[in-house]
Amino acid sequence: MHERRIPEWVRHAPAPSVRDFGILAGLEAVVRGILISVFPLIMYRALQDAATVSFLYFLVGVISLVAGMLVPFAIRYVPRRWAYTAGGLMFMVSAGLAVQGSAEAVVAALALNTVAAVVTFICFNAYVLDYIERIELGRCETSRMFYSALGWTGGPMAGVLLMEVWAPAPFVVSACAAAVMLVVFWAMRLGNGKLITKARGQARNPFAFLPRFFAQPRLVAG
User: Fold this and answer.
1) pLDDT value at position 201?
2) Residues 6 or more apart in contact with residue 137 via CB below 8 angstroms
3) d(Cα 69, Cα 74) in Å, to the nearest integer?
4) What does the pLDDT read at residue 203?
5) Rg (CA), the chain
6) String of b and e for 138-159 (b: at least 16 CB within 10 Å)?
7) Three-state SS string across 16-57, please?
8) Which residues contact 92 (CB under 8 A, 6 or more apart)?
9) Could you read off the pLDDT of 159-174 as tens digits, one per residue?
10) Quick check: 168 and 38 in contact, CB under 8 A?
11) Pseudo-torsion of CA 117, 104, 93, 91, nearest 10°?
């Protein structure tokens, strides 16, 4: 009898590459970039008051700041892969709410979109630190910027143009991009990342690194 062997890629997921993380970042750039110029327009159309729109943007900014501080605490209890997935689903729900067009739905959509961006951003960076070697971080950031360029440069203009053709169009594109982003994320099989353990020694004072930083002209110029 011939023994059937389970393929290696099924038993052990291949380690994600720099290119894989770049593609994931590029999809997120499409999700967010195509709506960055659309949200202010639909907010103003729904509320008809620039001061109110500005104030609500400020409140949403505060909410995103608080959410960003809570995410590291939350992923101690919620598996990181599910936290990232929740962020992707929030992008999709946000797009659905924005299509409704009412003032309340639009404000809720903006808040969900912003919180989703914070959640996915923090989880993404944690995964990069887990899977990308220290000497490869520079190349990873370059890849991330390369794949994100289209979403952040063409996205804002495309969003406004699509909205003039069909109002829900940019939100449909954003939701579809979020769905593809989640498919790619699960295909990468990142899991929950590496377990964070308690440090054995006392952490060094971060200000102690400042003289070393200023002694490197390229870092200062950057």
Assistant:
1) 57
2) 128
3) 9
4) 59
5) 20
6) eebbebbeebbeebbeebbebb
7) CCHHHHHHHHHHHHHHHHCCCCHHHHHHHHHHCCHHHHHHHH
8) 175, 178, 179
9) 999 999 999 999 999 9
10) no
11) -20
Question: What are 77-123's pLDDT values in tens digits?
Answer: 899 999 999 999 999 999 999 999 899 999 999 999 999 999 999 99
DSSP of 163-214, one letter per residue? Answer: HHH-TTHHHHHHHHHHHHHHHHHHHHT-TT-PPP---SSPPPPGGGGHHHHH
- According to CATH, what is the number of the domain 16-193? 1.20.1250.20
- 128 φ, ψ (degrees, to nearest 5): -60, -45
Q: What is residue 78's DSSP assignment?
A: S
Model pTM? 0.83
Residue pair 129/6 in contact by the 8 Å Cβ criterion? no
